[in-house]
Amino acid sequence: MNKRTRSKNLSDQSIEVIVQLLDGWASKLTWDHLISAIDFKLHQHYTRQALSSHPQIKLAYDKTKQRLSLEQKKEAKKSEKDILLEQLQNLEKENQRLKKENQELLALNHRVTYNAYVHGLSLEQLNKEVSEEK
């Protein structure tokens, strides 16, 4: 079985590189993801315990988790905002359609009223309830 050799102790320079990695972190953050990124960047493998024992790294990790969580919440709020904007646009379209229908009904009412007047129908005849009798 292949045993890993122990990585060298974290130097101030390595800690600074790790903190900078965390400052620019934009995707899901876990200790495993950070360890992989450090392994790729520094060609050194450290455990979560080794990394979290350094206050600068632990603080940068916690702050990054907090920042990513806030960004995720903002993104969720943005989605709510988009939904509300879409609902508003739909209501505006419905309002425009109803205004047009109302104009058409007013025009129809005007024509019917005019034609009733021309043909001598009285207001009583026009207001008479519609019955099912023929």
Cα gyration radius (Å) = 36 Å
The global form is rod-shaped
**Which range best describes the helical content: under 10%, 10-25%, 25-40%, 40-55%, 55-70% or over 70%?**
over 70%
Uncertain ranges: none
- Derived structural class: mainly alpha
Number of helices: 5
Give descriptors for this structure.
134 residues; 5 helices
Topology overview:
Elements: H1 12-23, H2 31-42, H3 48-52, H4 55-118, H5 123-127
Helix pairs in contact: 1-2, 1-4
Word description of this protein:
The protein is mainly α. It is built from five helices and no strands. The protein is rod-shaped. The mean pLDDT is 89.
Quick rundown:
73% of the residues lie in helices and 0% in strands. It is mostly helical and 134 residues long. It has one domain.
